[in-house]
Specification:
The protein is an all-alpha fold and 109 residues long. It has two domains: 1-30; 31-107. Helix content is 87%, strand content 0%. The protein has helices at 3-26, 34-70, 74-107. The longest helix has 37 residues, at 34-70. It is elongated. It starts with a helix and ends with a helix. 4% of the residues are buried. Residues 20-24 have low confidence and may be disordered.
Length: 109
């Protein structure tokens, strides 16, 4: 047997050996594995914190932008208005994203 064939044969036997042991482990179900449950809890915690922090940060930014807009001239007021709108839209996007993730994770419980 050539050297190439021996390497391929060794690689294939290692692959099938590892895949057979993986299937035996996964036979009990992947839903109860620590990786899946830990990831589920992590995503749940992050989305919960995002639902709390996003409006607070957006509100603080909007207050700051309004103060800066009141001290700006006419041209700069347009930029500050744009920033206020961007902060509002970003807050809404963060809230919708967090709610969507909570909804999707809720289906897997």
């Amino acid at each position: 047997m050539s050297k190439k064939r021996r390497i391929v044969s060794l690689a294939l036997s290692a692959y099938f050996t590892l895949s057979a042991s993986t299937h035996v482990y996964a036979a009990g179900g992947i839903g109860g594995s620590p990786i899946v449950t830990g990831t589920e809890k992590l995503v749940g915690d992050v989305t919960a914190w995002l639902m709390v922090l996003a409006p607070i940060v957006a509100e603080l930014l909007i207050i700051y932008f309004c103060i800066r807009r009141s001290a700006a001239d006419e041209m700069e007021q347009k930029k500050w208005n744009t920033r206020i709108i961007a902060a509002t839209v970003s807050c809404i996007g963060a809230m919708l994203g967090s709610a969507t993730l909570n909804l999707v994770i809720g289906y897997y419980r």
